[in-house]
Amino acid sequence: MGFLREGINEVVATTRGNAAPMGIICRNGALSMVLFRGSHTEANIRRDGWVVANLTADPVVWVRTAFEDLPPEDLVAEEVGGRRVERLRACEAWAAFAAEVKHETAEKTLVALTPLAEPVVLKEGVCPVNRGFAGIIEATVHATRYVQNRDPHLRALIDHHLALVQRCGGPREWEAARVLKGFLGDEKK
Ligand SMILES: Cc1cc2nc3c(=O)[nH]c(=O)nc-3n(C[C@H](O)[C@H](O)[C@H](O)COP(=O)(O)O)c2cc1C
Hints:
alpha+beta; Pnp Oxidase, Chain A; Methane Monooxygenase Hydroxylase, Chain G, domain 1; 35% strand; globular; DUF447_C; Split_barrel_FMN-bd; DUF447 family protein
């Protein structure tokens, strides 16, 4: 299981040439992902059969990878278990998984994950709990839906979390909030 724990672990998932926030579900030691159809991550996993889970505490990376492609130099290739995989260049830790589609519906694909090797920790250290960072994660999750349906309830949730970012975050969270508001593309910038 490496650095993942029981529950849903939010990571930045990298696949070939792509990065996006995704949840890795860990239940009774079994690892899986539920991917909404139509994402690059889903298509790449289907094609290549691998995914890398990246840990990063940089809130701007979470916002950017949710909405846009990173430049190619932000990804770096690694050889793991005979496979060439790609990870975030700037991450605290990463782990590569074989990924196999187990079930699919019109909207979602269930993928089972098997570790290809032990996780790699690049930066040791502890990270205090910060509601500003958590607010960026929550606001970004809602924003990925909001840009598709403009649901006012989602907008209220985003505004609630962005208010917490202002109160509890630091300069990097404030920068992430600024970037996120740009992607929301509305008057509330
Ligand atoms: C914290 C967080 C967790 C997410 N988890 C998932 C997930 O488990 N499955 C999914 O399909 N999308 C998830 N998303 C939404 C995707 O990141 C989003 O749709 C993204 O645009 C997909 O990018 P891609 O097309 O490059 O794969 C999550 C977003 C955030 C911010």
